[in-house]
Amino acid sequence: MTESGFDPASLVQSWPKPSKPRPIVTFGAGSIVGDAHFPAYRKAGFPVAGLYDPDHAKAEKLASQWGVTAFTLEEAAAVEGAIFDLATPPTRHADVLKALPDGTVALIQKPMGGNLAEATAILEICRSKKLQAAVNFQGRFAPMMLALKDAIAKGWLGEIVDFDAWLALATPWELWEFLLKAPRVEIAMHSIHYLDLIRQLLGDPRGVHAKTLGHPNHAVAQTRTSAILDYGDTVRCALSINHDHKFGRRHQASEFRICGTEGAAYLKLGLNLDYPRGEPEVLEIYPKGGTDWVAVPLAGAWFPDAFVGRMANVQRYAAGEDATLISPVEDAWSTMALVEAAYQSNAAPATPIAERP
């Protein structure tokens, strides 16, 4: 504990586990399943019944690696009492949700569709089928993000007035084959995490100014974004994202700087650096009444621990052990609306600069 009374070890960094976890059925056999979903569920002791992928050979290969069953679509949807874990591309979510039994529990990989119209269709499917569905904005459950949220809730930063996200790194987009020809990439698939976290901490902005673009050296639709979220005259919120900083590690960055009226926080999102292996994550807080930065010892990392917490909340909500489902489809739709507004801003003409008379 510091002289200000701030105790970094007291900050919440994990989600309580369900007492009787249900079997998990995963849809999709992409890299995210082997890199994050299954490692998280094994670490937490959550039972995985099996997985389905339309590429059955791909499904069988991953299933054999993890000792689970490779299902057909019908077999997967028929597993009784299951938590259905959609690790599917956004354009496939709706079809999978339609195949699930009414009233079941589902966790949908972000984004919630390829655009706001698809998100609205998914919302309507979940409503009509009475699905207990959440979107996998697992960033909210990363140990450093849970600790940051707890520190803010306890008043150690005062009122938040400044949020900076700064990334300059080299992201291996080739790991996600379906993204290589997708029309929307950077904001819809990556910065959406940050937009969702910002909404959790600051609420919904009045609007957004954004520019997102690709790079001459490759064909990925967008890999660089600048955005400003409008929170009025008190809060400044900006994102500067560059996934094409391929000039060695020395000057790369993956950082948040969050300032309040009485304290501040610095976060290094190490997962993004040398993904998916990543680097150690960092959370430091300059607490209210303090005189220096204090390192918060982290009890885990974004991968796989955020996926543990995300699934734990879904499991506990399904069992009645959690009163609130975090990032339900109703709230996730609002994150999608912010993403859509960013793309609309990108498409709008910039304010022209006056010519010299």
C-alpha end-to-end distance: 63 Å
Fourth-level CATH superfamily of the largest domain: Dihydrodipicolinate Reductase, domain 2
The percent range for strand residues is 15-25%
The largest pleated sheet is described as:
8 strands, mixed
Q: Rg, please?
A: 21 Å
Q: Helix coverage percent of residues?
A: 25-40%
Q: Give the averaged pLDDT, no decimals.
A: 97
List the helices and strands and how they pair.
Elements: E1 24-27, H1 31-44, E2 48-52, H2 56-66, E3 69-70, H3 73-77, E4 83-86, H4 93-99, E5 105-109, H5 116-128, E6 132-136, H6 143-153, E7 160-168, H7 186-202, E8 207-213, E9 224-231, E10 235-242, E11 253-260, E12 264-268, E13 282-286, E14 294-295, H8 302-319, H9 329-347
Q: Can you walk me through this structure?
A:
The chain is α/β, with parallel strands linked by helices. It folds into two domains: 24-139 and 307-329, NAD(P)-binding Rossmann-like Domain (Rossmann fold), CATH 3.40.50; 142-299, Dihydrodipicolinate Reductase, domain 2 (2-Layer Sandwich). The chain is built from nine helices and 14 strands. The protein has helices at residues 31-44, 56-66, 73-77, 93-99, 116-128, 143-153, 186-202, 302-319, 329-347; strands at residues 24-27, 48-52, 69-70, 83-86, 105-109, 132-136, 160-168, 207-213, 224-231, 235-242, 253-260, 264-268, 282-286, 294-295. The strands form two sheets. It has an eight-stranded mixed β-sheet. Helix 5 (116-128) links the parallel strand 5 (105-109) and strand 6. Helix 1 packs across helix 8 (302-319), helix 4 packs parallel to helix 5 (116-128) and helix 7 packs across helix 9 (329-347). The longest helix is centred in the last third of the chain and has 19 residues, at 329-347. It is globular, with a radius of gyration of 21 Å. The model has no long low-confidence stretch (mean pLDDT 97).
